[in-house]
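Subject: sequence -> structure tokens, single chain

Hey, anyone have a minute? Need the predicted structure for the following. Not urgent.
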Amino acid sequence: MRIHIAFVILYGFICTTGQAQQTSISMQFKPRMELRDGYQTLPVDGTTPAFHTNTRVRLQMGYTSNRVEVVAQPQYIYVWGQNSFNSSADNNFSLYQAYAQLNLAGKTIDSTAAIDKVALRIGRQELNYDGGRILSNLDWAPQGIRHDAALFILEDGVWSLHAGAGYNQDGPANFGSNFSKNYYKSFQMVRLHREGKAFKGSLLFFKDDFQQFETDSLGIPYSTEVTGRINAGTWLSYAISPQLSVEGEYYVQKGKDPTGNDLNAWLMNAQLVWKAIEGKLVITPGIDIVSGNDGLEADPVNHAFNPTYGINHKFYGFMDYFYTSSPFGSGGLQDIFVRTSYKINNDWNTWVHFHYFASAGNINDVSDPGNAADPYFGTEVDWVLNYRFDQTTQLQFGAATMLGSSTLQQVKGQPATDGGMGFFSYLQFQFTPKFL
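Reply:
Had a minute. Here:
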């Protein structure tokens, strides 16, 4: 039924605005076949590989005028066979983005204006900044990440300022303000960015608030307070020459974590970007350190940084062992990496990534309690091959392996033996036709 309603809305949208030159309608159809034998966690004796195909179908309808921009993106995500071929109920439909942007001032309204853009965007939208370390659209996951928010936009020359906020409720209510879902009750953010020729940089402040609950004597939950977590930091990039750039990020987390504990954590990245062979070959060595807790000392303060809304698949290995849905304790992470990409021609390119993973904090060794385990988690190698058939059709093949240690087995809740090897491979098609 929901799918039928979506297509009725789409049909109405086409009929009412199809004659306008600023109307656009496009689609993304992205099926991905995955073979998993140690994805997110190492295989153990008795486990067998898994294979499935997930698919995202996302429509995009847009309207743009000098004064208004409107976007609607319904999507349908599913795994083949998840719903039977004759099922009467299907709950995989959702609205990924739906927002209206009102341009208040700027050159889109008046070409002689002193400032480029002043706008207000309201609705469900992506917050995707600075490569996605802290705020991303998580495009790897079929569902993605989006936020219900109001966003103020100010852009002029090399400078831009985005300031936004969101406030969530379980539903309409006459009294009270409860939000019991497993994410933030509200957020507030400010991002200042400079996009220069040699120097690029951003300052980000993002505060997310979580409603805390306790249970009364009858087992009924009730709200006690709302706690806040502050994410603040910077992303910087400087081009020393056309061939060499240095980049870095540093963020802190303060306040309270989502469970209400005191929080004092940090994250840092430093990397070089070297381009060779007329820019066809890009080599990026670097290091990420994400703070964690000391497993040998009791501390009421949580020191484990959590990049909740980042695209962690991009940064911490394509096998998704860290900061995804598969936990690995709270000791933090060190990642010494080398990422390479090579443009073979206009249609073919390939990536190879190497990662050396270790814990940032002490881990209490289960085989020798009271002493620290070896911090080494494992070594991961990722390989991706991309091919572009044309502007609307792309193919991506990926293969990755993790050579994990006994410490990795321990933090994943497995019997700590001599380590193991995990493997992951996928084949993904992406079709992005434009209808209007």
